[in-house]
Automatic annotation (TrEMBL):
Cofactor(s) recorded in Swiss-Prot or TrEMBL: pyridoxal 5'-phosphate
Binding site for pyridoxal 5'-phosphate: G103, A104, F136, D221, E222, V223, Q224, T279
GO biological process: L-arginine biosynthetic process
Binding positions (N(2)-acetyl-L-ornithine): R139, S278
InterPro entries documented for this protein: Ac/SucOrn_transaminase_bac, AcOrn/SuccOrn_fam, Aminotrans_3, Aminotrans_3_PPA_site, Class-III_PLP-dep_AT, PyrdxlP-dep_Trfase, PyrdxlP-dep_Trfase_major, PyrdxlP-dep_Trfase_small
Name of the protein this chain belongs to: Acetylornithine aminotransferase
UniProt key word Nucleotide-binding: no
Gene Ontology MF terms in the entry: identical protein binding; N2-acetyl-L-ornithine:2-oxoglutarate 5-aminotransferase activity; pyridoxal phosphate binding
SUPFAM superfamilies listed in its UniProt record: PLP-dependent transferases (SSF53383)
Pathway terms, separated by semicolons: Amino-acid biosynthesis; L-arginine biosynthesis; N(2)-acetyl-L-ornithine from L-glutamate: step 4/4
Cofactor note: Binds 1 pyridoxal phosphate per subunit.
Length: 401
């Protein structure tokens, strides 16, 4: 069957507006479309393809597991799920793991657990959840309401209650909201969708101290920042604080859908049998790929390589800015990089993304005025150089226009 982009408009729900290009093949950080046109990939499937496309370790883990066992449900556990959980426990603060299929589901579990923990430990009154403006936590109704962009949660009827938003990097605004009725504070330790906003150390330390003071759980949403993205296995490891609950997804499966919620035994014990679940959570195929991704990423070679590559990306963006004067700031950490457009180009991030695609470079936006790059953590230097050549051409055209 021959398919083209127009079929999307005929048979798909119109909640996305995908590009005209339909990719059919990817190797490493290069992708080819139906017509054989090649792209350099600085998008990484939105921080998912941490090892690029079709990494041999992931392909072989998936193929091996495909010949063994695909699915059981949670009526029985399985070896890949237990092994991946053990690895996550060994490498982090966590003592317990819950597997889900996506970031939103991992966050949904975290929020439900926080509410249940607070009810059991302190009583019915402790239900308030504080999150941050511009934060993003997924699209289920609970997680999107916790997210800090009301436009995403408006228009679907009554929202889950007792959720409020403070300003990111503004401790006073959190202090004004938090109290002993707060059950949890949820935040990204590096805001992604909201524009690549790095927290100050004082802010993060302050959030931790306020949570402690008011017996509230600190939930880190590391769906985008986790699994090596910042050059740490998880971003909290570079911040000098330890969350009570951490959620991880995206790069956890390197392109295969999986999410997880990590926490301590004392907190986890409140999700007793029957309180929460998912048919596919802990699926053997997903966990087998997760093990391979985790083992490949969690090495000094890959994590240190992220920091080296970050420098190449920063250098590339600074060089472009020196030539065309388009950015007001280059920010982020590791390979979660944002370039904020200056006054002249406000609201034009999508134009930059489309112009880059025209030149054969895939990249992303974060809001209307920030371009975002979340490439493979092992993107070859030659691909970075080629990608910047293409970006230069794209911006030369935009800057002339
Ligand atoms: C920080 C963060 N949390 C949660 C999500 C939602 O994850 P998913 O789309 O897998 O549900 C995202 C997705 O962009 C994210 O960036």
């Amino acid at each position: 069957m021959q398919v083209s982009r127009s079929l999307f408009d005929e048979v798909m729900v119109p909640n996305y507006a995908p590009s005209a290009v339909i990719p059919v093949k990817g190797i490493g950080s290069r992708v080819w479309d139906q017509n054989g046109r090649e792209f350099i990939d600085f998008a990484g499937g939105i921080a998912v393809n941490c090892l690029g496309h079709c990494h041999p370790a992931l392909v072989s883990a998936l193929k091996d597991q495909a010949d063994k066992l695909w699915h059981l449900s949670n009526v029985m556990t399985n070896e890949p799920a237990l092994i991946l959980a053990q690895k996550l426990v060994n490498a982090t603060f966590a003592e317990k793991v819950y597997f889900a299929n996506s970031g939103a589901e991992a966050n949904e579990a975290a929020l439900k657990l926080a509410r249940r923990w607070a009810k059991n430990e302190f009583g019915e009154h402790k239900t308030q959840i504080i999150a941050f403006k511009q934060g993003f936590h997924g699209r289920t109704f609970f997680t999107v309401t916790v997210g800090g962009q009301p436009a995403y949660s408006d228009g679907f009827g009554p929202k889950p209650a007792d959720i409020v938003h403070a300003e990111y990097n503004n401790l006073a605004s959190l202090e004004a909201l938090i109290s002993d009725t707060t059950c949890a504070v949820m935040l990204e330790p590096l805001q992604g969708e909201g524009g690549i906003i790095t927290p100050t150390p004082e802010f993060i330390q302050g959030v931790a101290a306020l949570c402690k003071k008011h017996n509230a759980l600190m939930i880190f949403d590391e769906v985008q920042s986790g699994v090596g993205r910042t050059g740490h296995l998880y971003a909290y490891m570079g911040l000098g604080v330890v969350p009570d609950i951490l959620t991880t997804a995206k790069a956890l499966g390197g392109g295969f859908p999986i999410g997880a919620m990590l926490t301590t035994t004392a907190i986890a014990k409140h999700l007793v049998v029957g309180t929460h679940g998912s048919t596919y959570g802990g699926n053997p195929l997903a966990c087998a790929v997760g093990i391979a991704a985790f083992d490949t990423v969690n090495t000094p070679e890959v994590l240190n390589g992220v920091k080296q590559r970050e420098q190449l990306f920063r250098d590339g963006l600074h060089a472009i800015n020196a030539k065309y004067d388009v950015f007001s700031e280059i920010r982020g950490q590791g390979l979660l990089i944002g370039a904020a457009l200056n006054e002249r180009y406000q609201g034009k991030a999508r134009d930059f993304m489309l112009a880059a695609a025209d030149e054969g470079l895939m990249m992303l936006v974060a809001g209307y005025s920030v371009i975002r790059m979340t490439p493979s953590l092992i993107i070859p230097e030659a691909d970075i150089a080629e990608g910047f050549k293409r970006l230069d051409k794209a911006i030369a055209k935009l800057a002339q226009a």
